[in-house]
Amino acid sequence: MPKVTIDDISIEVPEGTTILEAARMIGGDIVPPAMCYYSHLQGTGGYCRTCIVQVTQGSEKDPRPMPKPVASCRTTVMDGMVVKNTTSPELLEARAGVVEFLLINHPLDCPVCDQAGECHLQDLGYDHGKLETRSEFPRREFEPIDIGPHIKLHMNRCILCYRCVKVADQLTDGRCHGVISRGEASEISTYIEQAIDNDFSGNMIDVCPVGALTDRTFRFKSRVWYTKPVDAHRDCPTCSGKVRLWFQGDDVIRVTSRKDEYGEVTTGPEGNPEWICNTCRFDTKSVHDWEIEGPSHIQRQSVISANHYESLKALKVTTERMYDANPHGTKVDLGEGALDPNNESK
Amino acid sequence: MLTKRSKLVVKRKMSLTERLYLPAIFNGLKITFSHLFKRTATIKYPEQTRPVSPIYRGMHVLKRDEAGAERCTACGLCAVACPAEAITMVAEERKPEETHLYREEKYAATYEIDMLRCIFCGLCEEACPKEAIFLTDRLIPSTYDRDSYVFGKDILVESIEAPVDVTKRQTPEVLEFKKDKKHYHNRTFNDAIKKSGLSAHK
Q: Do B80 and A223 touch (CB under 8 A)?
């Protein structure tokens, strides 16, 4: 098995693993960000260049460094490869340049956009971007398009990551969604704005790293950080039925698939990605349709974690009072660490 | 005895002048009437008002832009910044015929500030990316019930005929503090930066 060293951390990975996947096996801050790569979709990656890393030693046999930063999502590891990500200042500067390029045409309409708060480009901009743009050209402007009754396309915000195209290609039958025109003029489109009528087309909302494809049933209903994410499931004949419900008060105002720390759909027990069908996503928005498992795990860095509690944390006094009220019952034990609101355990 | 300041009550016999009471009464009246000739501590509000600091934080205003369209886009950042959780809003999508009313694609259909919860910290103004909400030197009018302290858009949004002046608040110090907020959508704000002689660029 090839051994690769990423930011001075060594790991042995199976043959053919990409640098990005190897970094994800290590985990933590050294994982390069990715805007277009999506592990559950074949052929993604290589478009956005945010995952670039510096290879300072190609392999054990040929220790020469690679002349330019390489896209870690498309470069497979070699035995003895040494990779620098966060430890290389030049690389971070190069990535800041990539972010600047991504933002050349991306509008600054985060206050309007429904994706704000869970947008990967927003995170990337905060982490690597500069405060201002040097571009003096006007941004590309398009009118928002309705793709079918459930999806809204804001071509302004699209960064052409091709993830949705791969979803349309690989998850749905009968391809009717793709990229038209070339280069700077290219845009996501459907065949003459044809509605996408497929059970799994809603997943392109989930894979979109920006707010280009958004849920029309959730459009402007709330900001994501005011809604409460809860994991739930139901017996669905077409999909896994494992979803994340977003509550506003007692109402489910949005249903999405569950996402892992890299913003990708979670993997099921058989290793299959838990895509959800359009019936689960758009048509079952009553609490009674779902069996609720508990609050979703939200990373502390996310704005959604504000006022989000993942375990019941009662004070000792409260538990004693609960015991006093029902002395014949069992004493309520909420477990260790149950008092810490920042407890990240699921 | 908990403190040394307490005094023991002594029941002694009063002297003749003390038993007359009149000297003590006149003494008291002298103090009372002397106040007639002193400067009053109060003013006759609302006819008179006290001078306030230029950066006084009073009642909020939701500004309109130069064309008279509402600047607020219901992004919710004021509400998330509010430590008192006084702000609530409901967003709505702008219709094509409403472009002159609202600047952005999304607008606040309802926008409410509970003035009894508000602590006038000004964090909403600081958080606002659209330069829409400002605190002004106006005071909150008093009423008799709690419900009427929840101010909606009818009170908060400035009228086109009588715009509320917030430039007084934009002192050079405030502009220096806000210098990173230099969005093209607020031209008047950028003009103010230029006028104050501060550089908008780092």
A: yes
The span from the CA of A341 to the CA of B1, in Å, is 46
Alpha helices (runs of H) in chain A, residue ranges in sequence order: 19-26, 89-102, 120-128, 163-170, 203-207, 278, 316-325
CB < 8 Å to B108, chain A: none
Is there a contact between A226 and B78 (Cβ–Cβ < 8 Å)? no
Strand residue runs (E) in A240-301: 242-248, 251-257, 291-295
In a domain, residue B14? The reply is no
Q: Does A146 touch chain B (CB under 8 A)?
A: no
Domain at B114, CATH number: 3.30.70.3270
- The more confidently predicted of residues B94 and A171 is B94
| Residue that has been written with the tokens 């956005």 in this structure | A48
Spell out the domains of chain A, with CATH numbers in brackets. Answer: 3-102 (3.10.20.740), 103-220 (3.30.70.20), 222-299 (no CATH), 311-346 (no CATH)
- On whether residue B39 sits in a domain, the answer given is no
pLDDT band per the 50, 70, 90 thresholds, residue B31: very high
Chain A residue closest in CA terms to B72: A111
Please judge whether A221 and B91 are an interchain contact, meaning their C-beta atoms are less than 8 angstroms apart: yes
pTM, two decimal places: 0.80
Q: Which of residues 280-309 of A touch B (CB under 8 A)?
A: 303, 306
Three-state DSSP at A222 gives coil
Which of A112, A133, A152, A225 to mutate against chain B (most B CBs within 10 Å)? A112
- Contacting A residues, span 91-130, partner chain B, CB-CB under 8 Å: 108-112, 116
Closest chain B residue by Cα to residue A143: B105
Ranges of chain A whose pLDDT falls below 50: 192, 332, 338-341, 343-346
In a domain, B196, yes or no: no
Tell me how many domains chain B contains.
1
